[in-house]
């Protein structure tokens, strides 16, 4: 089957002529859970059957370019899939793209992505490992860096690799097509990125590569190059891009609709509780480790009259416990209940300031509750600022010396001692 044929294969079609054991059916169901596409599914079934017959674990690859130091829940959608496959007994390979990051992934870009320095890459990769460990069992994973085989490739090897794909096929990629048609510059080195990502699959002899839906072209490149090098082509499994807190745009730090996986437990819990009831069920599918049967039963209870808040609390506690602890999740729930009743959380920052009397806008900024004095005044104007529980309505207020609790919005608090 060609890559283009594979791209048209329906993700839900199970070959009728293959007898599937219970183990293979379970593995297939776990593979398909929440996924956008599994291509070609028939080949993945054959690989699973071979794994069952021989006991040789299949090799599951997921490449990550350390372009930023912090991960959010959107990044964990694919990591969750990797952990589910790892728990089946398959061999998972978290691949750190320290070489490809120096090129810069052009996926979805309308301009050339600036490459990072080696120092930036190494610093980001260090924090990646610490955060990935919260989802994937790194002690049972085969961690690799693609500089292992990309650096030795050299100029001659790079030219030989580039000869295995045509410019016409490269320009079939949507983002390249749009940039070419609009006259926007495409640097030659950007064509190397999908080639190098595909070559990673050759070097690792990957059986399955995971990625977001925006990575489909690059994942199919891995299949093409493996065939060129005489290997059995990998299958590809794409996961949807997770909608953020607003339920509209994909989760992104730049849009402010994200939950960082290193955020405090109380913040993480409260943010999950803020999503809509409709989005909650999609998050259950993509972020929860509960079985689909359990989720379906819970949804049926809600449709039968149970308060959807109960389901949301369960999801918030599961996610918070994963990145902190069960005890932290319980405490975060109590903190959320306390806040919802207008109470003041126990674990608020203590801030000591001088300069009384201080203008309210400057005070809010000095207490790190707003980014600027003007933002603080806007919050006062909107009725979002309280001192010891009393709403502040005077933008000209000057606060005298003393100790008091400042609150901005529903979640930001500080116990301030102003001298």
UniProtKB/TrEMBL annotation:
Motif residue range(s): 'KMSKS' region: 250-254
Pfam short name (any one): S4_2
GO molecular function annotation: ATP binding; RNA binding; tyrosine-tRNA ligase activity
Matching InterPro entries: aa-tRNA-synth_I_CS (IPR001412), aa-tRNA-synth_Ic (IPR002305), Rossmann-like_a/b/a_fold (IPR014729), S4_RNA-bd_sf (IPR036986), Tyr-tRNA-ligase (IPR002307), Tyr-tRNA-ligase_bac-type (IPR024088), Tyr-tRNA-ligase_bac_2 (IPR024108)
Renumbered ranges of motif 'HIGH' region: 66-75
EC number per UniProt: 6.1.1.1
Keywords, comma-separated and alphabetical: Aminoacyl-tRNA synthetase, ATP-binding, Cytoplasm, Ligase, Nucleotide-binding, Protein biosynthesis, RNA-binding
Residues annotated to bind ATP: 253
Quaternary structure note: Homodimer.
Functional note: Catalyzes the attachment of tyrosine to tRNA(Tyr) in a two-step reaction: tyrosine is first activated by ATP to form Tyr-AMP and then transferred to the acceptor end of tRNA(Tyr).
Entry protein name: Tyrosine--tRNA ligase
The gene coding this protein: tyrS
């Amino acid at each position: 089957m060609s890559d283009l044929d594979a791209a048209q294969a329906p993700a839900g079609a199970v070959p009728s002529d293959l007898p599937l054991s219970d183990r293979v059916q379970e593995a297939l169901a776990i593979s398909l859970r929440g996924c956008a596409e599994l291509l070609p599914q028939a080949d993945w079934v054959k690989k699973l059957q071979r794994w069952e017959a021989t006991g040789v674990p299949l090799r599951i690859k997921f490449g990550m370019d350390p372009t930023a130091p912090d991960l959010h829940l959107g990044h964990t959608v694919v990591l969750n899939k990797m952990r589910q496959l790892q728990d089946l007994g398959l061999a998972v390979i978290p691949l750190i793209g320290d070489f490809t990051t120096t090129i810069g992934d052009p996926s979805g870009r309308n301009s050339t992505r600036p490459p990072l320095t080696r120092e930036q890459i190494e610093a980001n990769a260090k924090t990646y490992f610490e955060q990935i460990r919260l989802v994937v069992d790194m002690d049972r994973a085969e961690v690799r860096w693609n500089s292992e085989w990309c650096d030795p490739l050299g100029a001659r090897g790079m030219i030989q690799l580039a000869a295995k794909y045509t410019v016409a096929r490269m320009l079939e990629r949507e983002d390249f097509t749009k940039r070419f048609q609009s006259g926007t510059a495409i640097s030659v080195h950007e064509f190397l990125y999908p080639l190098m990502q595909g070559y990673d699959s050759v070097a690792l002899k990957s059986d399955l590569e995971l990625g977001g839906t925006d990575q489909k072209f690059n994942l199919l490149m891995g299949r093409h190059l493996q065939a060129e090098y005489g290997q059995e082509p990998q299958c590809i499994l794409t996961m949807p891009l997770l909608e953020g807190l607003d339920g509209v745009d994909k989760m992104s730090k730049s849009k402010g609709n994200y939950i960082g996986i290193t955020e405090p437990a109380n913040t993480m819990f409260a943010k999950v509780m803020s999503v809509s009831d409709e989005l909650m069920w999609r998050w259950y599918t993509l972020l929860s480790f509960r079985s689909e049967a359990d989720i379906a039963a819970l949804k049926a209870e809600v449709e039968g009259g149970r308060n959807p808040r109960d389901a949301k609390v369960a999801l918030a506690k599961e996610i918070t416990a994963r990145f902190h602890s069960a005890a932290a999740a319980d405490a975060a729930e109590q903190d959320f209940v306390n806040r919802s009743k207008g109470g003041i959380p126990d674990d608020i920052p203590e801030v000591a300031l001088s300069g009384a009397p201080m203008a309210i806008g400057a005070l809010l900024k000095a207490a790190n509750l707003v980014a600027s004095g003007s933002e603080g005044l806007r919050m006062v104007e909107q009725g979002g600022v309280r001192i010891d529980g009393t709403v502040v309505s005077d933008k000209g207020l000057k606060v005298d010396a003393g100790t008091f609790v400042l609150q901005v919005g529903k979640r930001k608090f500080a116990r301030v001692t102003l001298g």
